Amino acid sequence: MKKQRMYVSIADRTILSAPDQAASLEVMVNDEELQTLYRQLGQLADADDDALFEEFALLHFKPLDEINAPYQARLDELYQSIYRCGTAGTRQVIAAMDEGISRMEEA
Questions:
Q1: 27-41, 42-56, 71-85: least confident range
Q2: Which helix (H) or strand (E) element contains residue 104?
Q3: Whole-angstrom Cα distance, residue 10 to residue 93?
Q4: What is the predicted pLDDT for the residue at 99?
Q5: 31 contacts 1 by C-beta, under 8 angstroms
Q6: Which one, of 36, 10, 12, 7, lies nearest residue 97 by Cα?
Q7: To 5 degrees, how large is the angle CA 21–CA 76–CA 3?
Q8: Pairing of strands 4-9, 14-16
């Protein structure tokens, strides 16, 4: 399967064929990998909506960490997929983000 260069924006939940300021995570994907990324972006959006609803529903009280856990799991899964398909530059960006988060958690 032929790979194509695409650009992912997690914040905008988009995958573009040309770079823009928001879509800066460059990946090389075949059709199957592209569909996986689209599916994961959709699941991330759903988890975000669910967390927002739970947070403001006031029907039950849960800690924010528990409310946000499904969203965080989807986000982690998406970053792992982007890392696997990512170019060297994208992998460096994700690795640097991971190192920064680790340092914040240690402090």
A1: 42-56
A2: helix 88-106
A3: 13
A4: 78
A5: yes
A6: 10
A7: 60
A8: antiparallel
Q: And the tokens for 68?
A: 């946000």
Q: How many residues does the chain have?
A: 107
Q: CA–CA distance from 85 to each of 3, 4, 18, 94, 101 (Å)?
A: 10, 11, 16, 12, 22
Structure-token pair, residue 97: 């983000």
First-to-last C-alpha distance (Å) of the chain:
45
pTM above 0.90, yes or no: no
Radius of gyration of the chain (CA): 16
**Residue 30 token pair:** 């075949």
User: Which pLDDT value is given to residue 94?
Assistant: 93
- Cα-based distances in Å from 18 to 42, 69, 80: 20, 32, 22
Q: Residue holding tokens 């992912």?
A: 8
